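Attaching the record inline, Q. Sequence:
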Amino acid sequence: MGSVENETKCKDTGNPEDLISGKKPKFLILGGCGFIGRHLVQFLLDKADKIFIIDKIPPELVWLNSTQGEVFGDSRVCFRSGNLITQVGCEKAFENIDRDIEYVINLASETRKGQSEAVYREGIYKLSLNVIQYVEKLLPNLKTYIEFSTGTVYPDGKTPHKESEKVDLWNYESRFKHAVEQEVGKTLQNYVIVRPAIVYGPGDRTGMTPRLVVGGIYKNLKEMMKLPWNSDIKTNTVHVTDLVRATYFLCLHGKHGEVYNIVDSGDTTQGWITSIVSEIFDLNHDYWGSTFSTLAKLDMCEVIDEINDKHMGPWATLCAEDDVPNTPLTPYIHKDTLVKKHICLSGTKLGELGFNHFEHPGVTKELLMEVLQDFVQLKMFPKSLLQD
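Structure, as predicted:
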């Protein structure tokens, strides 16, 4: 996109009171039209003088629900189009934002699964280095810069990992996210790194939603749903509303130069998620256990191809029959998804800083139903799969 010609106009909203200085702060959210970004914009709306958003995809094309659409239409929300991977895109996007922005949250990143090393290098590492450069050069009033990393950088294991522990850069995403963590401090001093667990909530496409899509398919097929490995795999989570609350807290109170895990207290496992999905779709389920390990060692690509062949056709048929013509949701599985790796984080450090209350301390059936119902309203998920 890389252009600011179609930017949303925003009006000066005056100087309402804020917590400290008598003036509400201005925020810049990079990647603000994405899943986490839209929830962050909604949360910050009554706390900000203005919220600037830079994203390569405009709000009209990102499947906002009605509430989010109203938020993005507010005069305090100012959208700027820009491809942050390129210097030209960064320059055009940043030249049309106010210079007295105090808080920057970088959510812009390559999030698609199964991409090449080059795609992740550009979409994570190069993008963030460009952003850091322009933030340092153009925003003299910056109080805190938040860089979103990932909770998948830790080694395998069931013991909750603290931020000070060694990392295990097992795929391209974790490798380049961690590389960005190392680079931020070379340019900025007032920065905070965030490592979230698996994020879910309305609008999530890559956290819990693929499991929900697959559950719907097995309801349609009237078959038992079998999952890789076993029920004990740690899949620690955080609801998006708690994530954005914690992010705002870190804007105000995070210690600069520090890394913070953000994870709920539910100690979520694959077994717990599967039990909820099975209840929603009235399924029986089981696990492949050590059998899957044997199959994977023989030919992981062939295993994945067979799984995708089984899922993709029925999903396409379901969507066509339910008048869901153009959904971005997919049951397609990539290799990284099937790696036997625990995601197990400690949230102690954030709690000791003072953020102790999670509105959603664990995943529930009601919270996953909220995700599905939001997708149904947007015609992204077949309504018939939620009917008896």
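Residues 1-20 have pLDDT under 50 and may be disordered. Residues 43 and 244 are 7 Å apart (CA to CA).

More tomorrow.
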